[in-house]
Design brief:
A four-stranded antiparallel beta sheet has the order 1-2-3-6, with no helix packed on it. It has a four-stranded antiparallel beta sheet with strand order 5-4-7-8, with no helix packed on it. A four-stranded antiparallel beta sheet has the order 12-11-14-15, with no helix packed on it. It has strands spanning 5-10, 13-19, 23-28, 35-41, 46-52, 56-61, 67-74, 79-85, 98-101, 108-113, 121-126, 132-136, 143-146, 153-161, 167-174. The radius of gyration is 17 Å and the shape is elongated. The protein is mainly beta and 175 residues long. It folds into two domains: 5-85, Sandwich (Immunoglobulin-like), CATH 2.60.40; 96-174, Immunoglobulin-like, CATH 2.60.40.3580. A hairpin with a 4-residue loop joins β4 (35-41) and β5 (46-52).
Length: 175
């Protein structure tokens, strides 16, 4: 899979989650702990009810281009919740050159470009209706940015390479 990899630790064991255009994969280590998983969409609708995860890779169907909240717990209620994003389509499954975290966020985000961090990017921020909220010229990668002026909701960050004029967009949720 050419997708993001997210790792969360529960009881000192690492659980890995991966996404593709139409699936969420959760890898569970071999141990005696029973792990349970439930998945909800961005609106809180239950997509997959609570069920026990099997050792190895567990696959759940998902819709392309959507955010999902994955909740993993043990019988002792040690809970971890994390957010995953599925790709828009199978043709866009190439690895993103941008890493934006945490997502969802409260006020501060960190933005990295895995290919280059030279400031040759412009940033535009759109709300969920497509209206431009703000932007930045010569956006510096690898820096923490305050976005406390944004209201809670879904935003689209559009990065434009000023040399090649290629754009890449990322959906971001502010809590």
């Amino acid at each position: 899979m050419n997708s993001g990899k997210y790792a969360q630790s529960i009881n000192d064991r690492e659980l890995n989650a991966y996404t593709s255009a139409n699936a969420i994969y959760i890898s569970v280590p071999q141990d005696s702990t029973a792990y349970f998983c439930s998945i909800r969409d961005v609106f809180g609708k239950e997509i997959h009810g609570k069920n026990e995860l099997q050792t190895g890779v567990n696959k759940y169907s998902a819709s392309p281009g959507e955010f999902y909240f994955v909740k993993i717990e043990t019988e002792r209620s040690s809970v971890k919740t994390f957010t995953l994003f599925t790709f828009e389509s199978k043709s866009s499954m190439t690895k993103s050159s941008f890493i934006v975290f945490p997502n969802p966020f409260h006020e501060e985000l960190t933005v990295f470009n895995t290919e280059k961090n030279d400031g040759n990017y412009d940033l535009r921020i759109l709300d969920n209706k497509g209206s431009e909220i703000s932007g930045a010229k010569n956006f510096e990668m690898g820096t923490h940015y305050e976005f406390d002026y944004l209201e809670p909701g879904l935003y689209i960050f559009i990065f434009t390479d000023k040399i090649s004029l290629q754009t890449e967009s990322i959906k971001i949720i502010k809590k």
